[in-house]
Amino acid sequence: MALTQGAYYLVFGAWSLVHIDSFQKVTGRKTDLWLVKTVGLLLVAIGGGLIFAAAGPQFVPGLIFIAMASAAALLGIELVYVRKRVISPIYLADALVELGFVVWWALCLARG
């Protein structure tokens, strides 16, 4: 699970860094490209950490918190700002993915 979320964050975080034009073509024009790239770098960092952790024998509570909290934060931001028409409705597709990560982690925690 951490590998899946990590790879997703790594790929989509890097996208805005590697090819901002195609990123904006899909997600809509942005006025603050520095902010887009900052979020991209943070996603790359979180994704890399999750991938690194997936190779280990166990997960510490802090890692699970970061995985769930980052997914919940992105979900909330996307829902609020799509509703306010600040960002494109395409972000609702990512919101579904983020919801899936939160639920997936919650089910794993419930199972122990």
Descriptive report:
The chain is mainly α. The protein has one domain (2-111). It has helices spanning 2-18, 20-27, 33-54, 61-83, 91-111. α1 packs across α2 (20-27), α3 (33-54) runs antiparallel to α4 (61-83) and α4 (61-83) packs antiparallel against α5 (91-111). The protein is globular, with a radius of gyration of 14 Å.
Helicity level:
over 70%
Rounded to an integer in angstroms, the radius of gyration calculated over CA atoms is 14 Å
Q: What is the beta-strand fraction?
A: under 5%
Oligomeric form of this entry? single chain
Dominant shape = globular
Number of strands: 0
Give the overall average pLDDT.
95
- Low-pLDDT runs of 5+ residues are none
Rounded to the nearest angstrom, the distance between the terminal CA atoms is: 14 Å
Quickly count the helices.
Answer: 5
Main pleated-sheet profile: none
Strand-pairing-aware structural class? mainly alpha
Total count of domains: 1
Element string (H = helix, E = strand): HHHHH
